[in-house]
Specification:
Layout: E1 12-17, E2 26-31, E3 37-43, E4 50-51, E5 64-65, E6 67-71, H1 80-90, E7 95-96, E8 104-105, E9 110-112, H2 128-139, E10 159-160, E11 163-164, E12 166-173, E13 179-186, H3 215-231, E14 241-248, H4 252-269, E15 281-290, H5 300-321, H6 337-341
Amino acid sequence: MLDALTDVAGLRVGHARVAGAGALSGTTVVLAPEGGATAAVDVRGGGPGTRETDALDPRNLVQRVDAIVLTGGSAYGLDAASGVMAWLEERGRGVRVGPDPAQVVPVVPAACLFDLGRGGDWRARPDASTGRAAVEDAAGTKPGAPVPEGCVGAGTGAVAGQFKGGVGTASVRLASGITVGALVVVNAAGSVVDPRTGVLYGEYGAAEPPAVPAPEVHRAALRRLAEVREADAAPPLNTTLAVVGTDADLTRAQAQKLAGTAHDGLARAIRPVHLLTDGDTVFTLATGARPLDPRNPVALNELLAAGADCLTRAVVKAVRAARGTMGRHLGTGHPSYSDLYGEPRPPV
């Protein structure tokens, strides 16, 4: 187990970054196995930017999808999904719509986050070529490959409050043998850190008590963050995106429930969350390799709890993996959590 979404057999993750000195954005693709996966979505932010999410409604036609796209660039960046769509079409993957096997329409749900202008160039944002590069990166990985975290892919220009945000991932294997994993791109208007202590919100309630930063370290961090707030006049336009994956055999309604309860994991790690200036969106991908116990009418509960827990841990890992950035429109820049608080220490 790698503690990553790719612990769910068949799921692969790829990243691509927008090229150029004035660019601070990118795209992340979660690629399903051949034949696709049962998919669902739950959108709770007040300012979402999405594509093909209506197709995931359990009442609608499409049963399985081949890829999920998470992208920077706000609504402009949704064009990255067309590059993924073209790549899938070339391989005959998608919804069959004619007698010829090549006559397919790939359904590629996507969601975007706001990172425009971070790094300096407002027009430096993902497009179809970025999406193709990300899906090719995913396809080029081996099964069960590690997932790069931090300032990669859709997390390249992400921020979390005044801290640098990014990509994080986590997983768990349940006693039933079912695996649940999560991948998140943390780009939140809310804070990931308790202002009283400097502890990451997502570390409260963990198996081990969190290490509390020394008071002088915390005071210095608060001063630095106040400087960032004063220098950064940009509006808090953000969005946290996530994919929760499992090898369980779920109905589309069950998959949608998993996406919904996974938002609880965001609420534990980001405060406040689901604001009007966020577009917080969680997708589910269920590969169907392992059936739920038919003798247990509430067997899904174990997965629901695990999805939220994995998403909380993924947020923590994203923030810890991120590294600080500077840019013309970032003022003094967004420091990372490790810049201000150092690497994690064992609890006393």
